[in-house]
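Changelog entry

Holo records now carry the ligand SMILES as an explicit input line rather than a separate metadata file. Below, a converted record for adenosine monophosphate, shown in the new format.
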Amino acid sequence: MKVLVFIEEQGGKLKRSSNEAITAANLLTSSDNITAIALNGDVNNLKTAGKYGAGNVVNLKNDSLKGEAPALAKSISDYAKSNSFDTVLFSADSIGKEVAPRVSVQLEAGYISDCTGIEANGDSITATKPVYAGKAQIKSKINTANKVLSLRPNVFTAKELNDSDAQVEEVSVDESANAVKYTNIAKNEGKLDVAEADIVVSGGRGLKEPENFNLVENLADALGGAVGASRAVVDAGWRPHSEQVGQTGKTVSPSLYVACAISGAVQHLAGMSSSKIIVAINKDSEAPIFKVTDYGIVGDVFEVLPKLTDKIKAHG
Amino acid sequence: MNILVCVSRVPDTAAKIKVSSDNKSLDTAGVKFILNPYDEYALEEAIQLKEKNGGELTVVTVADGSATDILRTALAMGADKAIHIKANQLEKDSYFVAKNISNVAKELNPDIIFLGKQSIDFDSFQMSSMLGGLLDLPSVDVVSQLEYSEGSIKGEKDIEGGKVSFESSLPAIVSVQKGIKDPRYPKLPQIMKAKKKPIEDRDAEETALRTELVEMAIPEKNRAGKILTDSEADINELVRLLHEEAKVI
Ligand SMILES: Cc1cc2nc3c(=O)[nH]c(=O)nc-3n(C[C@H](O)[C@H](O)[C@H](O)COP(=O)(O)OP(=O)(O)OC[C@H]3O[C@@H](n4cnc5c(N)ncnc54)[C@H](O)[C@@H]3O)c2cc1C
Ligand SMILES: Nc1ncnc2c1ncn2[C@@H]1O[C@H](COP(=O)(O)O)[C@@H](O)[C@H]1O
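Structure line, unchanged by the conversion:
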């Protein structure tokens, strides 16, 4: 098995989900068979892929490309083909989910998206993924010789497997983004996205007024996490859709999810039930959210949130 | 203009999910099926484009021969005709669906193919790019705003923590984000009219399975489920548990 792992940078280092994917590749084969591949990366960041178990790194260079999926997919597929890679891993983030299916077509590979577990049995790979909004999960086997997978962020652990950096080789690509072109990328770098945060504090309709979301924001700040929201408050216009967690919002699996005054409708659970630890604060002890929590507080958010925030701050 | 919208039939979001005795498929007894919510947004965007620019709007689905209900819904919303591709093979994968839709697209030569960003059954999130690969057409996912002008489109797509502005030549494939335009609810006259619109049944082209489902199961819940009160002592206890037991802070 020869594995290519697509990696990205964020905030001056490799994205955590990229490190997770490299570490996960080590579940399939040994690091000398693992190459990390990036687009227009910074060598100083890319070389750190070695620590997470990449044997070497390829930096695809083309100044005109900004991550347009069709051109990026073609560049990755061409590299995989001419260097006989049979398996390509992505993290299931916005770029990965858009690029991976095209790579699978170009490599005539079976593709499984948003995996929460992967396992190699000889030449074949079996992957686990949640379906029906996390109400069930499936195991699927890839039957083709070439294989493509995308891994759900925050599920696989990123582990430093050794302390040596990897060699970074530059490969210039002549692919141009002629059909689809990204003309502007507006990223709010300062703000953590719910889908990427390690801690998420979400608020629901029980907060009564949009202004009261400052209670949620304060707890999120104290924990160093991002703010999420239920659909009820997004539809009411209190919070942007980019913060919505759930079946028609984002899927998150942080290590800590705190649901404040959220009832726990199935569609909300769909987006957060794979979180490692779930805490709920709700005044209704019968609220369905308590069926999926590790720790629940039955109480009024207006009283509990300020106290909890202070205690978290004091805890440091 | 000529528009193709891909729609899928999925269990209602509130459906109770049970696994069949084969341990690899959904027990559909008592499950209500609906038009995939994201596809309603795709349809609405397509219908408004058609209303403005004229042309024909076709919907297509690949299903186990039981999807006329959602096709009627799409026709009532405003599609002109529907193609119902019946899968006779027992198991299917995304490649099989994409291949069959690509066959229809090659025949109709649409200017734009619209899809939802994901189907809420398996949340595969792969049909648009797979079609793009098979048809060698540009594709853009998670589009939250779209403008059309002769021969090209431009708009915005959502990414983590931001937005990307894009332009693309046509023909192109667009998968939409929730909320791009609010889907209409068809009223009785439209529902009646839709009964006369054509639904063409076709047999699917079989493909070898690239991925194969080997097991479906209901995940076990092993959450601590500790319930505390709102007392000072219990809030302190929560902080302790998060630190010492769960080790997340
Ligand atoms: C097709 C479809 C897709 C959907 N997708 C999503 C989705 O992606 N995400 C999503 O979240 N929802 C989604 N929903 C909506 C979902 O069904 C619920 O309506 C929604 O999640 C409810 O939001 P909520 O919990 O904030 O509000 P409510 O259900 O109104 O719950 C408010 C909660 O606050 C508690 N509360 C009130 N006051 C206080 C207080 N002072 N202190 C403590 N607790 C208090 C109440 O006990 C109650 O449990 C979808 C629905 C459909 C049909
Ligand atoms: N069986 C199907 N028939 C037609 N279109 C489909 C089918 N499955 C998925 N789609 C389309 O592809 C989109 C993405 O689905 P998926 O990649 O399966 O998550 C959906 O929103 C539909 O627009």
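Spot-checked after migration. Chain B has a mean pLDDT of 95. The longest helix of chain B spans residues 37-53.
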